[in-house]
C-alpha cells in the first residue's frame, strides 16, 4: 500500500484527534489530495484564495458536481487551512452553494409491501426496520444487540446524525424476526470465539474504555459483516457491521423486481415512515423526536408531501369528468 505524505498524515491525525468519522476522514483527504494535484502538487501553504476559488470553479463547471459536493470540498479545504496550516481563509469570493430543497419521494404502503416481498433474510429485516422505525441506513447498520429492548419495544440509537442519541419505537410485528436475527448473530459470534477472535469493531476511544466487554454478545452488531477484518485504527481483528453497498445492491434488485418506477433508496423508507405517521394523525413533534430532527422546520417538509396545504382542492378535470 502506497504510503501517504507527511502532510497528508498530519491532516489525518488532526481529523482523528477531533473525532471525525472514518467516512469524513476519507472524504476530506480525497478533496485535499484533489486540490493539491489540481495545482501541480504545490504545497497548500503556498496557495491562497485565488487558487481555492479556481479549484472550486473547476469542480462546478468542468466536473459539474452537485451543490452538496461543492460544499463538501470547501469544508475539507477550510479544515485543512484552519487546523493544519493554522490560517483562516477570509474574503473568499466563493461561498457555500445553496442546495435546492426538494420534496422527498415517498412510497405508499402497498409499494413498501411489494419491495419487501422481493427481499429475504437480513435484507428484508433491515428494510422493515427502515420503514418501521425511521432509521437512516447508517443508524440501522450500526445497531448493536444491546441497543434493542424487546420488552419495552424501544431501540436506542447511539450517536446518530449530529452525534445525537435518541430512542425510537420498535414495532411489535418485528419482535420475532429480531429474536431470530439475534440468534444468528449469537451463532456467528460463538464461531468467532472458537477460532480465537470474537471482538467487535468500535471507535478507538470506546476500545480503551470498554475493552473488557468487546467480546460480549451484547456489543456485537445486529447486522454483522460476513467476514472479519482488520480495524482501520487499532489494527486488531474484528467483525464490522454489514456494508451499506451490500444492502443497496439488494434493494435495487428488489425495486426492479417490484416494478416500481420511483427512485428508491434506503432513505426513501425514512421519508415514508414520517409521512405515514403524519397521515395517520401522529403529532408532528413526536415525529420530530423519532426522526431526531433538531429543527421542527426539517420535519415540516413532510406536511408538504401529504398535501396539507391543498387539502380539499379539486382539480378542474375532476369536475369536468
Structure report:
There is one protein chain. With 321 residues, the protein is mainly alpha-helical. The protein has 2 domains: 79 residues, Orthogonal Bundle (DNA polymerase, domain 1); 213 residues, hpI Integrase, Chain A (Orthogonal Bundle). It has 15 helices and 5 strands. Strands 1-2-3 form a 3-stranded antiparallel beta sheet. About 2% of the residues have low confidence.
List keywords for this structure.
321 residues, mainly alpha, DNA polymerase, domain 1, hpI Integrase, Chain A, 2 domains, 3-stranded antiparallel beta sheet, two-stranded antiparallel ribbon, 5 strands, 51% helix
Question: Could you report the average pLDDT, rounded to the nearest whole number?
Answer: 87
The CATH H-level superfamily of the largest domain is Intergrase catalytic core
| Total discrete domains | 2
Number of helices: 15
Radius of gyration: 23 Å
Question: The CATH topology of the largest domain is what?
Answer: hpI Integrase, Chain A
How large is the share of residues in beta strands? Answer: under 5%
Amino acid at each position: 500500500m502506497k504510503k501517504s505524505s507527511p502532510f497528508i498524515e498530519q491532516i489525518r491525525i488532526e481529523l482523528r484527534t477531533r473525532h471525525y468519522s472514518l467516512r469524513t476522514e476519507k472524504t476530506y483527504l480525497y478533496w485535499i489530495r484533489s486540490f493539491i494535484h489540481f495545482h501541480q502538487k504545490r504545497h497548500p501553504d503556498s496557495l491562497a484564495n485565488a487558487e481555492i476559488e479556481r479549484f472550486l470553479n473547476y469542480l462546478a463547471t468542468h466536473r459539474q458536481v452537485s451543490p452538496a459536493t461543492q460544499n463538501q470540498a470547501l469544508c475539507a479545504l477550510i479544515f485543512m487551512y484552519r487546523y493544519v496550516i493554522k490560517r483562516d481563509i477570509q474574503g473568499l469570493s466563493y461561498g457555500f452553494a445553496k442546495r435546492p430543497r426538494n420534496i422527498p419521494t415517498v412510497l405508499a404502503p402497498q409499494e413498501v409491501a411489494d419491495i419487501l416481498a422481493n427481499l429475504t433474510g437480513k435484507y428484508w429485516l433491515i428494510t422493515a426496520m427502515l420503514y418501521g422505525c425511521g432509521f437512516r441506513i447508517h443508524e440501522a447498520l450500526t445497531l448493536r444487540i444491546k441497543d434493542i429492548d424487546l420488552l419495552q419495544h424501544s431501540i436506542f440509537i447511539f450517536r446518530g446524525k449530529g452525534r445525537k442519541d435518541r430512542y425510537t419505537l420498535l414495532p411489535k410485528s418485528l419482535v420475532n424476526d429480531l429474536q431470530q436475527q439475534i440468534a444468528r448473530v449469537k451463532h456467528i459470534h460463538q464461531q468467532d470465539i472458537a477460532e480465537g477472535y470474537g471482538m467487535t469493531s468500535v471507535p478507538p476511544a470506546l476500545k480503551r474504555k470498554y475493552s473488557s466487554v468487546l467480546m460480549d454478545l451484547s456489543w456485537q452488531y445486529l447486522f454483522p459483516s460476513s467476514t472479519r477484518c482488520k480495524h482501520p485504527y487499532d489494527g486488531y481483528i474484528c467483525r464490522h457491521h454489514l456494508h451499506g453497498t451490500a444492502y443497496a445492491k439488494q434493494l435495487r434488485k428488489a425495486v426492479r423486481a417490484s416494478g416500481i418506477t420511483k427512485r428508491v433508496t434506503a432513505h426513501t423508507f425514512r421519508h415514508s415512515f414520517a409521512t405515514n405517521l403524519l397521515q395517520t394523525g401522529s403529532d408532528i413533534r413526536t415525529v420530530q423526536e423519532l426522526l431526531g430532527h433538531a429543527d421542527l422546520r426539517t420535519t415540516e417538509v413532510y406536511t408538504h408531501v401529504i398535501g396539507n396545504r391543498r387539502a380539499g382542492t379539486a382539480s378542474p378535470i375532476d369536475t369536468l369528468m
